[in-house]
Amino acid sequence: MANLNLVEAVREALRQEMEHDPKVIVLGEDVGRNGGVFRVTEGLFQQFGPDRVVDTPLAESGIVGMAIGMAIAGYRPVAEIQFSGFVYPAYDQLVSHASRMRNRSRGGYTVPMVVRMPYGGGIRALEHHSESMEAVFVHVPGLKVVIPSDPYDAKGLLTAAIRDPDPVIFCEPDRIYRAVRMEVPEESYTLPLGEAKVVREGFDLTLISWGAHVRTAKQAADHLAEEGVYDVEVIDVRTLSPFDINTVAASVVKTGRAVVVQEAPRTGGFASEIATQLMERAILQLEAPVGRVTGFDTIPPLGRLEDYYHPDVRGVMRQIRATMEF
Fold it and tell me: Measured between alpha carbons, how far is 10 from 124 in angstroms, rounded to an integer?
């Protein structure tokens, strides 16, 4: 076992898959000699060379468009977008081509590619560097959307994403890139896409999140347990599309209450989809409306105001109490 942070776990998944399959290609802005803006791809250029670790022009549409063509031709490209807020020029490529190719060709072509991108705030960066727009991609049929919350999941989920026959959006929460270390197997392994994880078992309420705020959720649950008031079950969604409603609904049937935590703006976020599906699956077991702790319907603020924008432990605890007292 190796003691890795999330950056190192992602790099290890990339390195092992490149060793395993010569068709795996990494491309993006500064991913080669510089090792990427967060140094995730550091050392890969020196090991695999410029034909497999490709420094591209600053053109997100070109990066993703090139990856689509490579995937159709039989390669397995892993394209990096420096920050998720820069992906919008490539959105047309993802929606119009990557997500539709299997259907358009009636299964004749698939697009086995991954688009990696740091996402979310918490690093005191500017607005386009702090976006949480995962719901935008969940809404696109044909795209899979994966968001790890720790190094172990990051390695296993990215390995599975690279091997998947369809396009995967792989969002990496940059606020925890180096915040957590944990034991990660040195050998290659995969975690199934579309399978949520019960992080903490409980009986009073189900607390649901993904990415960086799984930690926020667990800290809130632990605080309430220490106070001796509520026993909260915490679920890490891990894959937003496909979404594992079965695991989440089974938990809510047991607890009777649910709160969803997301960093993204409140309106139209994935928390709303979870609430709707829980209503459809478990309305007779719900003893209170599904609560939400979210960001605000505004552009992410500059660094000084970040702490007011993002969900925090106290805000999550406050919503849990409100849902329990309904």
Answer: 22
Q: Which domains does the chain have, with CATH numbers?
A: 2-184 (3.40.50.970), 197-324 (3.40.50.920)
How far apart, in whole angstroms, are the C-alpha atoms of residue 94 and residue 319?
36
Strand arrangement of the beta sheet that strand 76-80 belongs to = 53-55, 24-28, 76-80, 114-119, 168-173, 144-146, 239-241
pLDDT at residue 127, rounded to an integer: 79
Whether 287 contacts 259, CB under 8 Å:
no
What is the percent of the chain with per-residue pLDDT over 70, rounded to a whole number? 100
Coil, strand or helix at 260 = strand
- Spatial separation of the C-alpha atoms in residues 79 and 81, rounded to whole Å: 7
Contact 122, 212 (CB under 8 A): yes
pTM over 0.90: yes
User: CA distances (Å), 225 to each of 156, 202, 317, 326, in order?
Assistant: 30, 10, 11, 19
CB 208 within 8 A of CB 243: no
Active site residues: 129
Of the candidates 151, 303, 320, the residue with the CA atom closest to the CA atom of residue 225 = 320
Quick: pLDDT tens for 74-128.
999 999 999 999 999 999 999 999 999 999 999 999 999 999 999 998 778 877 8
Name the token pair of 75.
């390669």
